[in-house]
């Protein structure tokens, strides 16, 4: 059992614990009592056990969350919340910071717990794919130079922009609640590691991407794969939103790039036939 290859039981425990903690926080607010009071704890424990039991008895709960993209909801809320809070503070809307301080426990549980659920859900889905489906192709390569430049430049611009705006809000408005600098720092960290080698694993249901020296995966469903373009020095795989750039990797470290391209073409054809 590990975060990189979580078992079905571990995934159920993580999801049940997340649901239980959120329910405990909501119940405490509704009842107007402490988080450690009997009723919120009991309600949260029951909700967590029910969620864990439902998750463990279903065949592919992680696949359902990935297919519907519900696993990304906490991350989307965090990013949107950071932007909204910063904008409201900048235009002089009062009452945002006291409200955030009042709900700080719930926000921490939702955000950090959601990040753990996001990580475990993707990794469990990939682990289940390896158990259920055959690997159609697998290769190890770095992103090509153009992709690295585009992605690194975009992430650096976004990260530095968040840092500048965040610190400007701190000095200009003396706000004490400002998530933009932390978000900008995380984005800059992503930009620094963008050139690492990646392992690409192709299944019939989609493409899995794992960056070296990390424990998380990225999964691109078959329906999001768009086109394949193989030339002498690179392989390009188009993908739909929410990914703004295609996958571009050098072919120097690939044993049989033509076979990989053929496998990708077959997956695209099967996706078109299914539609």
What would you say this structure looks like, in words?
The structure is a single chain. This protein has helices spanning 8-31, 38-57, 61-68, 73-90, 96-102, 104-132, 145-173, 180-192, 257-274; strands at 137-141, 198-203, 206-211, 217-221, 225-230, 234-239, 247-250. The chain is α+β, with helices and mostly antiparallel strands and 275 residues long. It has a domain at 1-132. The strands form two sheets. Strands 1-2-3-4 form a four-stranded antiparallel β-sheet, sandwiched between helices. The protein has a three-stranded antiparallel β-sheet with strand order 5-6-7, with helices on both faces. Helix 4 packs antiparallel against helix 6 and helix 7 packs antiparallel against helix 8. The longest helix is centred in the middle third of the chain and has 29 residues, at 104-132.
Q: How would a crystallographer describe the biggest sheet?
A: 4 strands, antiparallel
Order of helices and strands: HHHHHHEHHEEEEEEH
Helical content band: 55-70%
Apparent shape: flat
Unreliable stretches (pLDDT < 50, length at least 5) are none
**Number of helices, counting only DSSP H or I runs of 4 residues or more:** 9
Transmembrane segments: 7-31, 37-57, 69-91, 103-122, 150-173
Keywords: Membrane, Transmembrane, Transmembrane helix
